[in-house]
Amino acid sequence: MKLIRFFLAVAVIAVMFISVACEYVFIEPVTYTVSGEVKFSTDVAPVLNRECITCHNGNHSSGLDLRTDYSYASLQANNCVTAPAATSILIVHINADHHSDGITGEENAKMVSWIDAAAPNN
Fold first, then answer.
1. How many CB atoms neighbour CB 44 within 10 A?
2. What residue segments make up the domains of the chain, in order of their start?
3. Which among 2, 32, 46, 84 could bridge 109 via Cys, Cβ 3.0 to 4.6 Å?
4. In the chain, % of residues over pLDDT 70
5. How many Å apart are CA 67 and CA 85, to the nearest integer?
């Protein structure tokens, strides 16, 4: 009987330590403010070229070709950049972790801003 009480006491103490040691930390999401005009040629295309052309290089089954000379026309032809950006195919795929670990929050925010500005070819 003493052994059962001992193990029960140890279990109670362990639960107390575990419950005190666990701490809930809320991390605020980071938001990025984009100032100025976002350009496809300098802000969007280089990111797509760096992060996406391994697969989307003209040989992908989706038909999406994101190589520099073809990316704008391909995004338009495949309806990937229709506003609002939050529901555009491009942003949905990026935010769904579509092999886009290298795209920073700031780059994502620039792409959103560019799409919301009607995705100009600038």
1. 24
2. 1-122
3. 32
4. 82
5. 21
